[in-house]
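During the reporting period, we have paired protein sequences with backbone structure tokens. One record among many follows, to show the layout:
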Amino acid sequence: MTARIEGPGKPLTNDDLADLERTLRAALPSQYRGFLLRNNGGIPSPDTVDVDGVPGSPTDVQVFFGIGRPVESSDLSWNRQTFSDRLPDRMLPIACDSGGNLFCLSLSGEDAGSVIYVDLEQRQPAFYLAAEGFDAFLGKLSE
């Protein structure tokens, strides 16, 4: 089953994504790049994902962040800046769950392209592999 995205953001261009990549000083994985071009964030349905090792899993994906979203807390840049002191530079926050924890895209390193769940409820954030790639992550969403 493929997740439907409700409330997508304004349409983006390749230039918009190139600007983001310049700001990040990293290339976006092609799967995620395609998602942003198609949806620019939004609310997935279904929205439940099981993440191995996470206490209380499964959790939900409340919203995927995008560029220029009308709600500030759903904006990629806002989340990158807000959580910069709690995340490694190579992690781009791309979504959150209803508890305020994050799903991040690894932009470099051995796990580049992977989606990582970040449990922010601990004193030090705890990191869990949610999926090996963005499309695999979308494929894990269920009712």
